[in-house]
Amino acid sequence: MKFHDYLFDLPTYQAGKPLEEVMASYHIPPENIIKLGSNENPFGVAPSAKKAIIEYANLASVYPDDSYSDIKKSLANKYDVKSDNIIIGSGSDQIIEFCVHSICDSAKTILMAQYTFAMYEIYAKQCNANIIKTTSFFHDLDSMIDMYHRHKPDIIFICTPNNPLGEALKRVDLIEFLNKISTDCLVILDCAYMEYCAYKDNDFAIYPKDIVEFPNVIYLGTFSKIYGLGGMRIGYGIANDNIISLLHKLRPPFNVTTLSLRAANASLQDIDFISKTLQNNFTQMQRYYVFADEYGLEIIESYGNFVTFLLHDKLNSTTISSFLLKQGIVVRDLSSYGLNAMRITIGTPSQNDFLLSKMAGILISYKDSF
């Protein structure tokens, strides 16, 4: 048996710490763990989605309607596109996988930002594709277009708002960029946090309607973030009919569960839950900006449901993250990205109270030691 040689050097994605691991490692009961490392909704599942899961639990034994017509119709109505423009995946990650596997091999090249979602690189390496990254810290479209002209990539990834940093691109700038890209190159717009971005500043909002007429652009969305369905694994891609019909050839049958579909469809209608989530996110986010100013930390303006602290050389993100973990607080240490930084999901008021008080204690002790 012989596997592809390049698979042996393929990195494994480092997911946020699960509750079970924290419980086992530190003997902390689940009710005392604050999980702010995976950008989940701190309020949990939308009430309407929870109701749908309970109501339709008896259908767990039944294969889903593989046309996914109900959820496609709901998304089509929400975004003013056609159902034929939509593909449903087991998380938007699966749509990324379809896109990369449909195009890439060792002769193909993928362009992405220097610091962005780690799975882009992992999917690229699964196909032994060449990877080109910009040298700018944030998404810089000027830098990206320059590298596009020099390297002629087959795929470009753009994450807006960008995970793990939080910055976003203006709609007018992005559309101008897309118009400069040849139809030979697929542009993947990962918009997992777009609901937050659109709420904060509509100038930075990207809608599927903006891109669906492009023959080489796909918009990705998810139910894992604002809709609180990370554990149900459901996302979607929206693009012109030709892209979608080709990606469907890679989609396995029944790739999304019956209950996931019911929960997602219900959550789309739960306006009160969405509004509550958005209001809490940006009200509580202000506390982190104030905290950063008070303790002399650099914080990136965020358009998502998280903030990222960039630490100076006297602070270590791994050390601080580990200390918080022992207190039952899970945050995302970004050292795996080559950054001395921490990404923290915006929690509920009480969760943020606890985290910020522990962070303050750490920073005061560090200050006293120098």
Automatic annotation (TrEMBL):
<keyword id="KW-0368">Histidine biosynthesis</keyword>
<keyword id="KW-0028">Amino-acid biosynthesis</keyword>
<dbReference type="Pfam" id="PF00155">
    <property type="entry name" value="Aminotran_1_2"/>
</dbReference>
<comment type="subunit">
    <text>Homodimer.</text>
</comment>
<dbReference type="GO" id="GO:0030170">
    <property type="term" value="F:pyridoxal phosphate binding"/>
</dbReference>
<feature type="domain" description="Aminotransferase class I/classII large">
    <location>
        <begin position="32"/>
        <end position="357"/>
    </location>
</feature>
<keyword id="KW-0663">Pyridoxal phosphate</keyword>
<comment type="similarity">
    <text>Belongs to the class-II pyridoxal-phosphate-dependent aminotransferase family. Histidinol-phosphate aminotransferase subfamily.</text>
</comment>
<comment type="pathway">
    <text>Amino-acid biosynthesis; L-histidine biosynthesis; L-histidine from 5-phospho-alpha-D-ribose 1-diphosphate: step 7/9.</text>
</comment>
<dbReference type="InterPro" id="IPR015424">
    <property type="entry name" value="PyrdxlP-dep_Trfase"/>
</dbReference>
<keyword id="KW-0032">Aminotransferase</keyword>
<feature type="modified residue" description="N6-(pyridoxal phosphate)lysine">
    <location>
        <position position="225"/>
    </location>
</feature>
<dbReference type="InterPro" id="IPR015422">
    <property type="entry name" value="PyrdxlP-dep_Trfase_small"/>
</dbReference>
<protein>
    <recommendedName>
        <fullName>Histidinol-phosphate aminotransferase</fullName>
        <ecNumber>2.6.1.9</ecNumber>
    </recommendedName>
</protein>
<dbReference type="InterPro" id="IPR005861">
    <property type="entry name" value="HisP_aminotrans"/>
</dbReference>
<dbReference type="InterPro" id="IPR050106">
    <property type="entry name" value="HistidinolP_aminotransfase"/>
</dbReference>
<dbReference type="GO" id="GO:0000105">
    <property type="term" value="P:L-histidine biosynthetic process"/>
</dbReference>
<dbReference type="InterPro" id="IPR004839">
    <property type="entry name" value="Aminotransferase_I/II_large"/>
</dbReference>
<dbReference type="InterPro" id="IPR015421">
    <property type="entry name" value="PyrdxlP-dep_Trfase_major"/>
</dbReference>
<dbReference type="GO" id="GO:0004400">
    <property type="term" value="F:histidinol-phosphate transaminase activity"/>
</dbReference>
<keyword id="KW-0808">Transferase</keyword>
